[in-house]
Design goal:
The chain is α+β, with helices and mostly antiparallel strands. The protein contains six helices and eleven strands. The strands form three sheets. The chain has a six-stranded mixed sheet, sandwiched between helices. Strands 7-9-8 form a three-stranded antiparallel sheet, with no helix packed on it. Strands 10-11 form a two-stranded antiparallel ribbon. Helix 4 packs antiparallel against helix 6. The radius of gyration is 19 Å and the shape is globular. The relative contact order is 0.14.
Length: 278
């Protein structure tokens, strides 16, 4: 696969869909590769997409550009990204940008609406105190060099709490800070869900601040909505994207959350925090 021109971080601007709806635009539009996003572990191409008078910027991740992983089947990351979007939509929370599986210039892959993060939003921090302070939740102590440690914290933010619930549902194995996209209008999106939906417990995230605490009524309502959808058409829509075992594990995680009524805690069988956290 030829290497497109690299796009420097911060050199892109999002373009909301104009005309055709987001999913339809992504699925049917003409993709034009404009550059390659730097520092991604897999091929991530920055594109424009146009269809029926609609135009937007988007990310295209061809399956051909996925690097093999020891614990996930080859060539399945794009489908898992689409599955995460469908699950997010079923909760009613709109936490994942519109995402589709489609053919593109380098073969089949994931295509997702480009979202530009608000550079002024602060969701994560390292502090030298033993306590997180007002408005923050403690995650863990981390070594920061020269024998010093700092406390990793995240904002005590309802948007992050919803995302923590979604990550628990999809068994996200890689929730880093760079995967959090707060926008200038106050919305929060999560991206990069290729290593999700494993049948084993692989939850690895920076959003442990509510571990063991009761779920909010908002979360219980969303999970009940998701449970009902999985018993209806959502299960059929996810079937081409996940294995039968992965779908069964997804249903089981939703029911476990509804039964316990609490945020999960680290299992101890898998590194709980991705590092580096960005």
């Amino acid at each position: 696969m030829p290497a497109p021109e690299r796009v420097p971080p911060g050199g892109l601007r999002s373009a909301r869909p104009q005309g055709a709806g987001g999913v339809e635009l992504l699925a049917k539009g003409e993709l034009t590769v404009r550059g390659q996003v730097r520092e991604a572990s897999n091929a991530v191409l920055y594109c424009t997409v146009q269809y029926d008078g609609g135009k937007a910027n988007c990310v295209y991740k061809p399956i051909a550009g996925e690097r093999p992983l020891w614990d996930f089947p080859d060539g399945t990351l794009a489908a898992r990204e689409v599955a995460a979007y469908l699950v997010s939509e079923a909760t009613g929370w709109d936490l994942v940008p519109p995402t589709v599986l489609r053919d593109g210039p380098y073969g089949e892959g994931m295509c997702q609406l480009w979202i530009e993060a608000d550079p002024g939003a602060e969701l994560l921090a390292l502090v030298e105190d033993d306590e997180p302070g007002d408005g923050w939740r403690a995650v863990a102590f981390a070594e920061v060099g020269e024998g010093r440690t700092a406390l990793l914290v995240h904002a005590d933010d309802e948007r992050l709490r919803r995302l923590a619930v979604l990550d628990s549902v999809i068994n996200n194995a890689d929730r880093k800070g760079g995967h959090l996209l707060p926008t200038a209008d106050g919305h929060l999106y999560g991206i990069d869900h290729g290593v999700s939906f494993h049948t084993d417990d692989k939850l690895r995230t920076l959003l442990w601040g509510w571990a063991g605490e009761p779920l909010t009524e908002d979360a219980r309502t969303a999970l009940q909505r998701l449970s009902e959808a999985l018993g209806d058409d959502l299960g059929e829509r996810l079937s081409p994207l996940l294995t039968d075992a992965e779908l069964a594990a997804l249903r089981a995680r939703v029911e476990t959350l509804l039964t316990t009524g609490r945020h999960p805690e680290p299992s101890g069988r898998w590194p709980a925090i991705p590092w580096p956290p960005v």
